[in-house]
Amino acid sequence: MRKARSLLILAALASGSALAQEKVTLRFTTWAGGDALKLLQSLAADYGKRNRNVTVEVESIPFGSYDQKITVQIAGGTPPDVGWVAERSVPGYIASRSLVNLRPTVASDASLVLNDYSPASLALWTRGDALYGLPFSFSPMLVYYNRDLFEKAGIPTPATLLRQNKWNYAAFEASASAIKKASPGAYGASLFRLDPQNWAGGILAAVYSNGGDVFGQDAASCALDSAGSVRAFELAQRMMRDGTAPRLGEQVTFASGRLGMYADQVSYSAQLKDVDFKWDVAPMPSGPSGRKTLLGQAGYAVFSASKHPREAQDFIKYLSSRAVMQRTAQFFPPPRRSLLNSSTFLKNPLISEASLRDAVLKQVGSARTLIVPTNWTQVNDVVVRNLERTLRPSANVGQELGRVCNEVDAVLKK
Amino acid sequence: MLKARTAAPPRVVKRRRGWESPWVGFAFVAPFMLGLTVLFLGPVLAVPVLSLLNWVLPDAPTWAGFSNYARLARDPEVLRSTWITALFVAGLVPLNIGLALGLALLLNVKARGVGLFRTLLFSPVVVPLVAWALVWRFVLQPDFGLVNNLLGRIGISGPNWLFEFPWALVAVIVSMVIEHVGLNMLIFLAALQGVPREVHEAAVIDGASRGQVFWKVTLPMISPTVFLTLVVTIIGALKAFAPIYVLTGGSDSASVLMVQMFKNGFKYFDFGYASGIAWVLFVVMLLLTVGQWQMRKRWVHYES
Questions:
Q1: Of B143, B253, B268, the CB nearest to A250
Q2: Contact B252 A71 (CB under 8 A)
Q3: Distance from CA of B66 to the nearest CA of A (A)
Q4: How far apart are the C-alpha atoms of A112 and A92, rounded to whole Å?
Q5: Which among A297, A280, A290, A410 has a CA at the least distance from the CA of A348?
Q6: What is the pLDDT of residues B213-230, one digit of tens each?
Q7: ipTM (interface pTM)
């Protein structure tokens, strides 16, 4: 009797451990918050239902400390299995061999048709034949504008100017100035984010459209002191000097209703769900070199140190499938061309179809991704440290950017 | 009853002897010692070793000898930060100690409502550092901030406080002094109340003026306390980081050495180099403290 019981217990233990071996838990990291995070959580749950042996835990880490935490976890031997990777971090992760080459998996899967991805969306992730991630977001910088403030100033909106072919940086500056005049408690426009660390957001669209750049060929040298870049920073300096744009450190957001125009991506609209003013989106203005906005990109990647690379890659395949990307498209303009033009993407609960066509679809073709060197964090810090000096009312912007470039070039040579 | 009373003493003695064993004491201290060793002593001893390595995550560490220190001596950013740190300490410490002593003297009276003032002045000490800094970020906004708004009313166009040199340094110092001054004030108050009234009375009877009483009687009597607060405040100033980083976001104008250490260690993951900066800071703090300890004989009286 006793023998039989202990045998039973042994059998139960054995079957239990067998089950535990089969059961896989994937850690999936993201910097999404709010509704986007909720969507990812429900997608992870869906995946778990289809694959009984896999549980996906979604872990949200704030964007500001995302790479910091992931790097420490990789070094500590406890990396996430799957995660979002932002475009500025891709070169660093690839250089340190932290990402898995997805090409074999992707090539073997007919449903993923890489041809459907816009070629520009894959360049960042490709090294030779290897593919280190699959983008899920292909998001151009666009202009959010406060229609109430435009109405109060009695001036045409960016949408109207666009139709008249007059939506350029001169019009942007003039509109901002008119808004400030009509509403002294507000600002006309801002080309910068609240956090100076994110300076590259709006100003880069102006830099590109003025014929400037951040880096020269292969991100090997600094080009922030080129004529086009200087023109864009001079525009920002002028607007801050005239009081039409908030100076660095001013805690004013577009959602507060005190900012006429603001550059960000479609995903920012999630923060405008409950605001009590009317707003819309438009493409960035055009400059002497045309309308060339900055393209934000983010993708899914599998970390090399993951203990379950097979399951992790399978999860990425699920996330990148047409059906799932259709659901994430509400927040992230999809890199799959068949979806970008589809009705699902253009049916956004907050933005009209016409505005999305103008601000996203028509801009994507000429938009540019900022390809950065592996030590981007250091380069970024050099710019941030000097930003106030460069934009000060009395500053000689060209000279200051020249100094920034000397410092950046020294960092790039390291 | 009687039986119990006679039986009790040996049992009590026996038990107490058991509890008084040094091992019991060690057992009580062990959790703390374990924490201290793992979380404090270990890292403190590891830092000088790490500073001799070339270790940038996610790569494995390699031996670097003193090259991190050679790099420190040539790094223009670090040299600049050294100056900023010196200015920061030179600005913060006298202001903090002077203000704390002044407030303690003012509040060292028996009057109605003095308790309220003491509480008010002490209350910033209990506010979390980062919350304090976030509020100041709003107060010091360039256009719609409280400070520049008030300045604007009297016709002064204020600077962009948190970004321009030297205003960023001034802003950081003032905000930190207001946050911390209450603690030093409290320590001074306690010391002042320890000064016997008779000594003051004797001095006054001898014809000493109020100034003389302060400089020749009160200050010497509380000099051990002044010494203590001076040492602690200097160390606190040298290792101040969170409020500075939250307020200025690492902008050049207030980038002290701790900010450099944080950036190199936790943004660039250059642990070897960051450890070098940390170790230099530690040695500077040690030398300053030892130096003050030596000099105290000249001005600290009435040490027990």
A1: B143
A2: no
A3: 18
A4: 26
A5: A280
A6: 888 888 888 888 898 899
A7: 0.78
